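Students often ask why we bother encoding 3D structure as a string. The short answer is that it lets us treat folding as translation between two languages. Here is a chain of 330 residues written in the first language.
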Amino acid sequence: MFSSVLSLKPNKKIIFWAKIAVFAVLVLYIANVLRQQPFDWNTVQTQLRTVEYPERWAAALLILTPVNWGFEALKWQILLRRVEETSFLDAYQGVLAGVSLSFALPAQLGDTAGRVLSLRTNRTRAVGASLVSGGMQFYVAIVFGTAAWAHHMTVVPERNNLTGNWLLTLLVALSLGGVVFSLTRRRLITYLTQRPSLSRFSDYWQVAGLYSDAEIGLALSVAALRYLVFSGQFYLAMRLVGIILPMSISASGIGLVFLAKTITPAFNLLSDLGVREAASLWVFSPFGRTIYTVPAPVLITATLTLWIANVLMPVLVGLIWVWKLKLTAE
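And here it is in the second language, the structure alphabet:
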């Protein structure tokens, strides 16, 4: 492993070590929080005993897992129509294969590879469709995260400061920028295609200019529905371990956790887990000092439960279709 790292080009070495540094900072932050409030299984067990009907929360969480990835498969199927017609089942298999490959490869690379290799033809254009799919989910997280941060600053006054307002301004600008990009995407793609240095990549992004406004709107709507589903799963995981907060506080907190997970560079699903943990501890830490009790060990148990249900289980199922992938196209 280390010999392969040493053989990387300087710019790739910088990216590699930057990601390692981000992951290390997350781990140190989590360790510091747990040092102040040590992880104690007795605390977790005591909290779990206070939960009424835990089996109902657990069942709802598990039932929504295939729904969550089903919406992702539906979005992928919609965007693939400009590349090749595919069934919902085939789209679902490609999505799960991508989830499994993302466990070992950089998240976007593994996800794209699993989806593209599940196709038999038009793989070059499918790469562009996969990037559009990921970009839509990223944009939805930004929009919801903007609303979440705006509400969070009203319930946590110490974070309503100059830095917080600058962050809100940036998030609003990114949200509006997505609208501008959608309206001008065809002209932008045409301009990029005409650039000699970029024209060789045109096959990858030209598909983004083929979608109609109706298709873009439909795919974005599905992305938003998926966002609401996995946000609901986070809430169910919190209720499963006995964390009860007002709905507005829970919604804004969950939105911020997913915002942090979206904008933080991840190189595999394990680092994604670290982001979720660290963001959850930071977002919900102010409420541990109020009438609402949010012990760090219990919160970590909730995020681990969500990761197992929403990521690890689909990864294991997706391994079935990873073995069926073909490296060569027809």
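Translate back mentally: Residues 146 and 170 are 9 Å apart (CA to CA). Keep this in mind for the problem set.
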